[in-house]
Amino acid sequence: MSIPQERRLVTAIPGPKSQELLARKQAAVPTGIGTTLPVFVTRAGGGVLEDADGNALIDFGSGIAVTNVGNAAPRVVERVRKQVADFTHTCFMVTPYESYVQVCEKLNQLTPGDHEKRTFLVNSGAEAVENAVKVARYATGRQAVVVFDHGYHGRTLLTMTLTAKNMPYKQGFGPYAPEVYRVPLAYPFRWPGENPAEEAYAQAVDMIEKQIGAGNVAAVVIEPIAGEGGFIEPAKGFLPKIAQYCRDNGIVFVADEVQTGFARTGDLFACEDEGVVPDIICTAKGIAGGLPLAAVTGRAELMDKVHAGGLGGTYGGNPLACEAALGVLETIEQDDLVARARRIGEIMLPRLRAMQERFPVIGDVRGRGAMIAVELVEPGTKNPNPAAVQEVIKRCHAEGLVVLSAGTYGNVLRFLPPLVIPEHLLEEGLGILEKAFS
Ligand code: PLZ
After folding, report:
1. Residue 354 Cα, ligand 1 centroid: separation in angstroms?
2. Domain segments of the chain: what residues?
3. In Å, how far from its chain's centre is CA 373?
4. How confident is the model at residue 2 (pLDDT cuts 50, 70, 90)?
């Protein structure tokens, strides 16, 4: 890695140059575009982000689960460098090129299930989810879409409607898209009953049958681990039951693996954990190391139903992004990043559980692979404690550790280190976190 893998603080965080840039940002960019940590990045790689003031920060965010292979990963850089000199765009729908087809072949082969598949490429996670719904509606001739409490699917009109949380995603942006129905998620830490998988499933089915009618449902869209909602791993058994219900009722089961995909959870895709095979899987984020790319992969018989010209977009599957994706897939395979993700979980979970013993503000520690979170509560209760999250984040940021919040109640600290982070930085980051808690 070209960037020294060390934390280095030479100014306060943010430093003077970043503060100057932040003032310019505030004058040029609307307030609607938030900033988690206002350090302006000049270089990044491995587990480190360098800023305009010469600070080097430890990265526990990966740009929200995107740089799984690390920033400026060598195989990605190599391929993109070559491609940018050859050609930058033709529009795949006008005159195609091989790398787009290669990415689709790879995804058809690597995603769960050995059935015949087709893939097409778009620009963002939201666009992938929105297109999955288009395909499901077309193929079934039905309209209703079922989504879950705590779900996040994007910021476009349809995907904002599919998203559960009002603030900040929906407030003031209505009216929302029609034919979207929300059912409960088996959230183990907060489920009131004894059997979250059984009970949440029964409630979901009851709502579908009473309020919609199974025969009117085109798609069920679910994140196998709810990301923005707070890294909620549904109780074991819930996902397979929902998938089975879909099969029994001719409903397209859509897995939104935008945040969980590409080795993040210690499997290439999170659905693999319980052997769930989605009819359509949406991927983005980790797919191309930060170049804008997303994919919709689904059963050939569903995908091929749509008439010629019914799907697409000017930039979808841009050649630079496709080369980046091929570099990402090579890196995951050749460097066995699935195993790296598991190893990260094996290091982080015991350390965080030990912290939970010491700090009663930590109500729950959870996650798989390198998608790990702690949920903070008012000690002795399950009442959400978003203020504690903000306080811990503030202290981590001041010490040069980039961490993110999440959660329906804003009370979750989430950790998404690049899978290539050196272990000494992982340990150092956990030390900073522990100090912040004490
Ligand atoms: N589906 C599961 O996690 C994006 C959102 C950041 P786009 N999550 C990060 C923010 O505040 O805008 C996401 C996701 C899941 C869909 C999306 C949407 O992906 O690439 O941001 O459109």
Report:
1. 31
2. 16-72+336-437, 75-334
3. 13
4. confident
